[in-house]
Amino acid sequence: MTLGLFATAKPNSSLSSAATAATAHPPDSANPDNKGVLLAHIVSTKCDSVVVTDDSMDFPPDWRQSVSEHDRRGHQEKGRTIALHSLGVLPAYQRMGLGRTVLKSYIQRMETAGVADRIALIAHGHLVEYYESFGFVNKGESAAQFGGGGWNDMVDSAHVIPQSMILTLLRSTNLPTLALVVRAYLSDENNAVSRVRSKVRCPQTLAG
Ligand SMILES: CC(C)(COP(=O)(O)OP(=O)(O)OC[C@H]1O[C@@H](n2cnc3c(N)ncnc32)[C@H](O)[C@@H]1OP(=O)(O)O)[C@@H](O)C(=O)NCCC(=O)NCCS
User: Fold this and answer.
1) What is the CB neighbour count within 10 angstroms for residue 42?
2) Is residue 145 located within the same domain as residue 175?
């Protein structure tokens, strides 16, 4: 669930001395002297809570051998929340719009992939407004104590279409119903779908 933004560095260009260039590989075999240098990244896992937790940032020490399905630490394949743990841009390339580009692209990819119902992250106060500009909502002080705590829980469920909504749409057969579901969902992301679903008369069951 990661995304990287790379640029091709020619030998002796300023990019070829970037901190990430040491481990970079040639982007294509025809130009082995060039390097595909990592400029920005997103690292995420899935979790089964609505917000990012300390468990979601942790991982079982024996994860390479075997992981119990009851262990809540680390990636939870069946979780419906994408826990965005790290967004980073190389210091020399910050405040040029790369962070915005990579995060917008990531949100769009997750939106179309349909793998989750929301994206969650934790942010310190100085970046709350930044994430709000992407549609994340500040849910208040986080219980996560990672790195000393002091985080805010931020959740974006407006862009990612939840599984429950897709199922409701599949069961609907007329346009007014579809419009009702979408409008209710957009105005109240938490409970709208279940409220509307109870009003919708399904002529046939397609799923569930
Ligand atoms: C936070 C970060 C990902 C933003 O990416 P970026 O490419 O630098 O940011 P963009 O160019 O997309 O957007 C710039 C805007 O982001 C906000 N912003 C970026 N860094 C900020 C900071 N340290 N404090 C406050 N606002 C900040 C500002 O609104 C800024 O607009 P401005 O330059 O007009 O003031 C990047 O600065 C970074 O990697 N920082 C270090 C790691 C980090 O803190 N990651 C986030 C938590 S995991």
Assistant:
1) 23
2) no
